[in-house]
Amino acid sequence: MKKKILKQKSAKNTSGAPTKFSRKDILAKHISYCHKTQKNSVTTAVRTQVEQTPVPQLTEIFNCDICEFKTSQKRYILAHLNAHIAEQMFCCNNCDYRSIKKDNLQKHMKIHTGEKPFSCHICKYQCIRKSNLQSHMTIHTGEKPFSCHICEYKFITKGNLQTHMKIHTGEKPFSCHICKYQCIQKISLQSHMKIHTGEKPFSCNVCEYKFITKSGLQRHMKIHTGEKPFSCNICEYKCITKSDLQRHMKIHTGEKLFSCNICEYKCITKDNLQTHMKIHTGEKPFSCHICKYQCIRKSSLQSHMKIHTGDKPFSCNICEYKCIIKSALQRHMKTHT
């Protein structure tokens, strides 16, 4: 009987190859369906032997090709190999940048040296990488191959589109560990952190203004140059930034997306609503260090300080009238008309 059982165990399948099993239950099913014609005593004996036979451990072992490290966990071998990669990385002597490829480090070093070998033949734009120049050239051609399927926004690069899509999903993967600020881009968080540190590395060479970001300084410099590249096609309004023009256009369309939940106030921008809410809360975060004057807006404090300094930058070109704020001059000009 025992010889017959062993002979039965090594029986071949229809293809002629020996049948192998990794689990007892699969073997039991095989016996049940393939050997029904055999006697019940044989089947029962085989099942008994299957139950008593220990299942071999088929654990895969991962070996490191560099050292003698071994593990049965794939994640451990991946982490171990990353450690070897880190040892072979090319590191920047000026910052924490590291790369597996020497070419990437050489490109990175141009940030520190200020070298920008690629330049635009239309404008003064210069950059480190050829790919950056190719993306820049689409500004001149007007080409925006990547478009959002939810709204009408179009983008020059795929990366900009992916960042934009997070606006629709509400995803904000980067958060400040000091306050509740959250944002879409890492660079936005880095700029935000300078608010807490008080760092303002970009300063105006004309006045004393300092800025957290380079783009903030570039916008500010247009005040001194008088440059206003964005203009309204309905009225004579001109402005420095595209966002200012977009806000202005809502005046013509009458669009006021933001409304107060206490009174009937409506406004164009979220910032205006936040400022308005301080009227209801009584909050006045800006105060004069000379007198007891307090106000909601920083611009209101700046205008107030001119009372103490005697500065009246706005003057009438018809009479000798001078005033502190532009709106006061506009009201005055109506007396002449």
Automatic annotation (TrEMBL):
It holds the Pfam family zf-C2H2. It is found in: Nucleus. Residues 90-117, 118-145, 146-173, 174-201, 202-229, 230-257, 258-285, 286-313, 314-337 form the C2H2-type domain. Keywords: DNA-binding, Metal-binding, Nucleus, Repeat, Transcription, Transcription regulation, Zinc, Zinc-finger. One of its GO terms (cellular component) is nucleus. One of its GO terms (molecular function) is DNA-binding transcription factor activity, RNA polymerase II-specific. Belongs to the hunchback C2H2-type zinc-finger protein family. This is C2H2-type domain-containing protein.
